[in-house]
């Protein structure tokens, strides 16, 4: 096991323990999260877990069913088991589960579901999506500034060269990419952006190698859009002494000298909000709710040690334009 793999294994294990620290409680209201992956990714799943943990602290009975990302049969089995049990007020599920939920939800019309980061038009499903294109627009603005302003960002060469290392070529990932490109071009129209796909969301060592290659090809800032594999992106940038931007959760502290910011998809907030809406009887099942910059569904969380107030002000001005509609961010969805 190489040094990178050892460090990654230890950090994921520790984070998984913390993310699963809140256990199920006795409650008249209950929520279960059927996962197609594991906790400990320091990204999407751990962010989602914060919402379930907040609900558990307020008395909601919570369970998070982890599963191997390479065992889709288990994902389906878990979804069918909780749906047929009658034990859960609401069943949450998310990425990679569209076909499974499309098959299971109609067979259980009395079971309520929340489907986040995707959409399914069924009367017992509340779909939740995030305007990752808007958050990525701000990430692109920051990346272009950081690449070209060598006084404020001394690890950059000054060349307007960036990279996106992404998990797979999917519509939702293209939404990240399109927003990032637009934001970067608003700062430097001639910006060059390498887009590299890993082929999955779990191969952190491959992500590490691809990141190193992107930096060798001139990238000053690398945007992580790769789920659990993104831990390899951040370490690859740090080992190359270049900047990176994290995703989904606050990843700034993982490599504090190199991670400029994290583009948050506020998944935990949407989970917590959905639970409270269902408890109150105000959730609109059969509809789609979108969380973007205007309702704090996405955000760019800065590493204050690396990003000055002056740079933040420039990006905040762009954020205001997006919220007001002056800037319309492209979307792949």
UniProtKB/TrEMBL annotation:
UniProt keyword annotations, A-Z: Cell membrane, Lipoprotein, Membrane, Signal
Signal sequence coordinates: 1-24
Record carries keyword Repressor: no
Matches recorded under InterPro entries: BMP_lipoprotein, Peripla_BP_I, PnrA-like
Keyword Transcription regulation: no
Recorded coiled-coil stretches: none
Cellular-component GO terms for this entry: plasma membrane
Positions of the ABC transporter substrate-binding protein PnrA-like domain: 32-327
PANTHER family, alphabetized: ABC TRANSPORTER GUANOSINE-BINDING PROTEIN NUPN (PTHR34296:SF2), TRANSCRIPTIONAL ACTIVATOR PROTEIN MED (PTHR34296)
Name the UniProt record assigns to this protein: ABC transporter substrate-binding protein PnrA-like domain-containing protein
Species this chain originates from: Devosia epidermidihirudinis
């Amino acid at each position: 096991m190489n040094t990178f793999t050892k460090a990654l294994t230890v950090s994921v294990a520790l984070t998984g323990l913390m993310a699963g620290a809140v256990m199920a409680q006795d409650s008249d209201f209950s929520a279960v999260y059927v996962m197609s992956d594991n906790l400990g990714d320091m990204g999407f799943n751990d962010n989602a877990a914060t919402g379930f943990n907040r609900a558990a602290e307020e008395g909601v009975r919570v369970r998070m069913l982890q599963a191997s990302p390479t065992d889709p049969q288990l994902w389906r089995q878990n979804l069918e088991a909780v749906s047929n049990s009658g034990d859960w007020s609401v069943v949450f599920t998310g990425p990679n589960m569209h076909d499974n939920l499309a098959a299971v939800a109609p067979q259980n019309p009395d079971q309520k579901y929340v489907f986040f980061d995707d959409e399914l038009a069924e009367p017992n499903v509340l779909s939740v999506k995030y305007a990752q294109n808007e958050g990525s627009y701000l990430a692109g603005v920051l990346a272009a500034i950081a690449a070209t302003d060598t006084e404020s960002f001394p690890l950059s060469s000054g060349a307007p060269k960036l990279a996106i290392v992404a998990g797979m070529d999917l519509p939702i990932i293209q939404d990240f990419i399109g927003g990032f490109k637009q934001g970067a071009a608003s700062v430097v129209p001639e910006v060059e952006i390498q887009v590299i796909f890993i082929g999955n969301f779990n191969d952190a060592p491959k992500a590490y190698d691809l990141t190193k290659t992107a930096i060798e090809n001139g990238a000053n800032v690398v945007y992580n859009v790769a789920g659990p594999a993104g831990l390899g992106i951040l370490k690859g940038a740090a080992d190359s002494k270049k900047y990176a931007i994290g995703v989904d959760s606050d990843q700034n502290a993982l490599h504090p000298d190199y991670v400029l910011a994290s583009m948050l998809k506020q998944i935990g907030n949407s989970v917590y909000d959905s639970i409270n809406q269902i408890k109150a009887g105000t959730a609109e099942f059969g509809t789609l709710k979108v969380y973007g910059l205007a309702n704090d569904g996405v955000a760019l969380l800065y590493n204050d040690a690396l990003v000055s107030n002056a740079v933040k002000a420039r990006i905040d001005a762009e954020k205001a334009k997006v919220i007001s509609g002056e800037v319309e961010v492209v979307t792949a969805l």
